[in-house]
Amino acid sequence: xxxxxxxxxxxxxxxxxxxxxxxxxxxxxxxxxxxxxxxxxxxxxxxxxxxxxxxxxxxxxxxxxxxxxxxxxxxxxxxxxxxxxxxxxxxxxxxxxxxxxxxxxxxxxxxxxxxxxxxxxxxxxxxxxxxxxxxxxxxxxxxxxxxxxxxxxxxxxxxxxxxxxxxxxxxxxxxxxxxxxxxxxxxxxxxxxxxxxxxxxxxxxxxxxxxxxxxxxxxxxxxxxxxxxxxxxxxxxxxxxxxxxxxxxxxxxxxxxxxxxxxxxxxxxxxxxxxxxxxxxxxxxxxxxxxxxxxxxxxxxxxxxxxxxxxxxxxxxxxxxxxxxxxxxxxxxxxxxxxxxxxxxxxxxxxxxxxxxxxxxxxxxxxxxxxxxxxxxxxxxxxxxxxxxxx
Length: 391
Ligand SMILES: [Zn+2]
Prior knowledge:
Elements: H1 4-13, H2 55-68, E1 74-75, E2 81-83, E3 90-91, H3 93-106, E4 110-114, H4 119-130, E5 152-155, H5 158-166, E6 170-172, E7 180-183, H6 192-206, H7 220-228, H8 246-251, H9 257-262, H10 267-273, H11 285-289, H12 303-306, H13 321-324, H14 342-353, H15 369-390
Parallel strand pairs: 2-4
Antiparallel strand pairs: 1-3, 4-5, 5-7, 6-7
Bound molecules: zinc ion (ZN).
Zinc ion (ZN) binds at residues 28, 114, 147, 152, 154, 177, 180.
């Protein structure tokens, strides 16, 4: 006997195994004016004529049903389906599929005035009806409305939609409640006990010192707690708190860094792609061969003038070799090529040194008289040698 409640709850969670639907007759409900709301307002204190005042609590109740039995209530919102702000657009999966198919088949907008109703909403309707308020013709007891099943729809233009909905296993209620259709397709579950159980679990989760039976039955014990419940929902919502989320979030960060680190490579390829710097345009083969610290002998130097007349003139530093090669060769004076005209040789030397750093000759420098004097002395010395050789 002790495990009887467990069997009852198991029955609620299994499709087709719950208590038979025991729906009270009721007349269509049209949402009215929203009552005055304040933080902490209880369900018992809710006024007005709109069940939207318990929207916060209703949202938790719907979520709790789907926690108890995942995918029991599915959102049918979509193209061509128009529902009011206070309407909870939920049906059991077969109903959602059927409604969408009917809308596609007819290709028109369907306007829905009522669909899923939570236990808290139904409590308000029943109480307002008992109090003779809000123009309610007849309301079902909490837990006994077919709108708590997740299978019912109240629509406009029921005559226009009848064929399309019936083709999808929706049953028209009849002339007593012409706006009402119930989905009677396969795979549905009796939801009444499940919706009551959802409330009982939410209550107990938030009131450890005032636990009630979680039996899916609506009695005085459950109704008292429902009346005391906050219209905007409990501090602890549907489903047990799930601490797991934080860890995965912390574990996620690592990925970003790798791509960022992988980006740097660009610089190296750029350097590698750059061709080696071309040799200095001005660097001539001879000047390059000279050690950097070795300065070319200035043209001003007058080696010939300092040279004894009998001593063959030494070739100046390598810097002059191309232009003066042979000019100073002492071995065979006759074989040496004709001496370039002084002006030309000088011009050539200037051109060669133009732009070479470290050369004393610079472009645009005034003709130096010392250089001219050196050439004159050189020519005189050579002339003297020739004459002496002839003699
Ligand atoms: Zn209805």
